User: Fold these one by one.
Assistant:
Number 1:
Amino acid sequence: TAATNNLEAFWMPYTANRQFKQDPRMFVAAKDMHYTTSDGRQVLDGTAGLWCCNAGHSRPKIVEAVQKQVAELDYAPAFQMGHPKAFELAARLAALMPSPLDHVFFTNSGSESVDTALKIALAYQRAIGQGTRTRLIGRERGYHGTGFGGISVGGIVANRRTFGTMLTGVDHMRHTHDPERNAFSRGIPENGAEYVEDLIRIIQLHDASTIAAVIVEPVAGSTGVLIPPKGYLERLRKICDDNGILLIFDEVITGFGRLGTPFATDFFGVTPDLVTTAKGLTSGVIPMGAVYCSADIYNAFMTGPDHMIELFHGYTYSAHPIACAAALATLDTYEEEGLLTRAADLAQYWEDGLHSLKDCPNIIDIRNLGLIGAIELEGIAGEPTKRAFSAFLKAYDEGLLIRTTGDIIALSPPLIISKDQIDELFTTLRSVLHAID
Ligand code: PMP
């Protein structure tokens, strides 16, 4: 049709690999572990969409809940008004999070969750008389969405340099002395441990009394599945505690079972002051995010001291009834099917399959945790990302959806994946990696 032939009207599908323009691949349907393409093929979902469809696709319980909700109560304002599912969802999420993170603020995306968490952190510091603490610290190669807050604290210079001055007073902890390389991993669990000390350099540079919060992804996802060395997050927590700095975990990818525990905070046994989530909260079905923190921090933001009484924060679609219904049905599905811990049961099988690829050509690192994994490929001189991009196209043709970020292939299948499907995924990938050599 004319509408589907006009591929220029919405061209975001091109932008993942600007240097290698491709026609967008069209999906027309999805069910459980598979997408159906416009040419009628089945594609195994190796990435849970964009790291979000943790319960798989178009699951009947979630579909029914959404249909029922839209027919019953399509919308309710979240200011002055409310609806019961918002409170039910908040209570269920609070119960899932470790204490004291039992207060929830609803957003519509990961980027909004990050903006909200940064604002809550700044407001809390001010409310407790620490108004000089205005600096925010992110990390090189951190990804926190594409809002102004997220690109400011995010560690990807390319995502922000076009836009001039970002949030001021932001520093980025070093991730490695060689920004082109991933110091975390390369098969050595201790690698990169020293980089947490970079926070101390920043504290010495600016003085702790100027720093409000540090934000990190417990496992960085979009920049290539960077798994922190043992002790890194504990050490980060300790440095923050010692210096009155709030710690924010961005769990937009790691939340909702990706590592085999409900959240990465459970997996690592480190409790931050704020957590951001989105994606898996509704298993990708409807946009929704949530920020979690303690009552103290939440109340400081919501009611605050006198000078904050006029502060307003929230969104037209905060706690949208359809999103709440989708999230509640998603949580039911996770619980009934044991999906929040399933990655733990499959982790070894996943690891064995992934590492069986190590004899394939051009691989310089393989890393994994829970049901997340990455294969880092040797770049082709002068043609960065070409090899991974070719792998993406080839895999798609062979019936497998993978994600590429730079020269890294990232994998994060829905948590319902079977062992046979894990075998199929790695068999296809083996053939892809040989074919693109
Ligand atoms: N934070 C992290 C860790 C993410 O991975 C993402 C999305 N990939 C975001 C924030 C932004 O989420 P959204 O695209 O929903 O705004």
Number 2:
Amino acid sequence: MQGSEAAVTRDRAAEGRSPIATQAARRRTFAVISHPDAGKSTLTEALALHARAIGEAGAVHGKAGRSATVSDWMAMERERGISISSTVLQFEYRDTVINLLDTPGHADFSEDTYRVLTAVDCAVMLLDAAKGLEPQTLKLFEVCRARRVPVVTFINKWDRPGIEPLALLDEIERRIGLQCTPLTWPVGPGGEFHGVIDRQAGEMVRFERSGGGSGAAIEEHLTPDEAAARFGGDWVRATEELELLGLTGADYDRDTFLGATTTPVMFGAAVANFGVRQLLDVLVDHAPAPAPRPDTEGRERALDTPFSGFVFKIQANMNRAHRDQIAFVRVCSGRFERGMVVNHAATGKPFATKYAHQVFGRERETVDEAFPGDVIGLVNAHALGIGDTLHAGPPPVSYPPLPSFAPEHFAVVRATDSSKFKRFRRGIEQLDAEGVVQVLRSNRRGDQAPVLAAVGPMQFEVATHRLDVEFGVPTAIEHLPYRLARRTDAEGEQMLRTAVGVEVLVRARDDTRLALFLDQWRLRSVTNDHPKLLVAPLLAGE
Ligand code: G4P
């Protein structure tokens, strides 16, 4: 369906909708999942540039050595040039409100990165054309898969030599079982990128860089005959590749995309803004708008019931002078108005929302109203925990807790001053409740030396820093060599009692028994030795 046609259909469907449902229908909330260096920051800038959310390209970068940084606002972030916080970029495009949630990567990859994916309706899987699927992308994709989040694939850096497009599609289908349905197809091999065939429009869009690549790409629309005359061999090759694709039934289908079994694929070069407008159009025309979210009992709360939302991230300020804490809430239903007093479902207590912000990096803008799909940052939200539900008015609602994700790093933490043990215990409990780290215990190690488990090692630094600054407990941390956790049971614990290179601990949060292994080989040899052992994968997103 063409963009304008889709918009008309949407407008028609909007007739008779309530104002809140209409606002929800014009929102798209998504995250980019990628491996470091695939071009996520560049693409984020390019997307925002189209909507003029950020005046000058370069402003989104939060990396060391780059000038303007709006996404690193904590001292620790600035020192290292990394961004700890999940930030939200909101902009309008074609009368649609786009909420782009950041998924921290690099050294700051953490459980928060996964949790962001519980708050989106769609994901853009960004691949480097020369590298294909890379480890971090795969991990994030698994969370999307477990949650059935629809995925649009954007193959980036086509301006450089890369893997053949058909081989890239084959890799995606083979390794993650997602059927590719390209919406655009590159004309010209990697490195000689002339433009893309828009399969639905049946035309070629030729790209040209605008001055210095800092503006939207210049586009020229060509009929097939014009494209054939201009690009000869490259055009013939592209159309032949598409014919091959046609044989495998790789046509876009909205139902299977929304069902997360197929992925629309697009080609581009974020650095030159090539293919970026097409991606925005696909998000607007095809990506899902916020839908009613099921509560703990599986009942869906209609979008136009009073405000409700859940906390998917809590960010504590590392700066001693500003001990505030921001809870990021994804709005699920109703209209949020700053200042409204809402109910905190976990405690039944009222929660005042005087300080509601839209947070993008260091920038905080007061938010006066928000609708389903939006993210609000509540400042001074010390009473709130990860996964908590907030709601206004009847009926009360409680959304399911957020899942715990499979940790890959483990460390024992101890208070260096044993007289501070009480405070230490309180701190550990608090960090566990906030989801900063997962806390694992065992009789063997005792209460004084719990094991902290994390998706990324940065979580340990945040935890020890906060124990020191907020609870006044300096700690010593000893990293453990385990890299793999599997769920087991009481029998499994018994069987593994004497196994070497394995340890069983209990996760405080949900009493799950986790067997920790040094690596895949250890896991394999242990399961060979104990064929009846229960070792279930802790699926990301399980
Ligand atoms: P990340 O956030 O995913 O880690 O990636 P980022 O956007 O920082 O991009 C990583 C590198 O890839 C950057 O180069 C960036 O310019 C480059 N890049 C991004 N998109 C494209 C593209 O479409 N084509 C090409 N050729 N390169 C692209 P860098 O040398 O690390 O940094 P910089 O000095 O260029 O900013």
